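Ticket #167: bound-state structure for coenzyme A.
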Amino acid sequence: MKKANSLKTKSPADSAVIMTELVLPQHTNALGTIFGGTVMSWIDIAGAISAGKYARCSVVTASIDALHFIAPIKLGHAVQLKACVNLTGKSSMEVGVRVDSENLITGERFHNVSAYLTFVALGSDGKPREVHPLEPKTEAEKRRYKSAIKRRASRVALAKDIKNEDH
Ligand SMILES: CC(C)(COP(=O)(O)OP(=O)(O)OC[C@H]1O[C@@H](n2cnc3c(N)ncnc32)[C@H](O)[C@@H]1OP(=O)(O)O)[C@@H](O)C(=O)NCCC(=O)NCCS
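RESOLUTION: The complex was predicted; output attached.
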């Protein structure tokens, strides 16, 4: 018989992270907009903090879903990254990260990217370990949880395919 997870449930709010960055000249290309890789790095950091806050142990990035940059982020703009856990498996957590930027002079705000990452919690032996089951509470949390279930199914299928191709 499968052993039930004995850990207490937690809510997405337990993993909520808000990270703010300022776009400096070293972050930009010749067009004065940010390098995609810089945003990806910030997304990975915000996601890892959120997963680590939730699991309270070491976590590693297992995968990052396709990223779509909807609008450019410009030099001098403030960038806000909001992250929280949407869904948990046995040892994995899907974290959603929303990236918005703000023109500090005009107050105009832009939604730039939404990203979904999977982190895996590791025990002191470096192996995957159980995480607290997630209990979404608000309507928005329940909606994100439902969409995350669909994304997880296609991710698991893809990960299996990749493993099989390697062997
Ligand atoms: C991620 C990692 C720990 C998974 O280890 P593994 O031995 O394949 O573990 P398992 O097959 O038992 O899978 C463990 C969990 O990871 C999930 N997982 C594994 N590969 C995944 C992938 N590519 N995408 C999403 N989830 C994945 C599994 O679905 C499983 O989830 P569950 O426990 O919630 O059911 C391992 O592949 C690893 O260490 N990768 C390198 C991570 C890294 O260096 N990241 C960058 C720097 S942080």
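RESOLUTION NOTES: Residues 139-166 form the longest helix (28 residues).
TICKET STATUS: resolved
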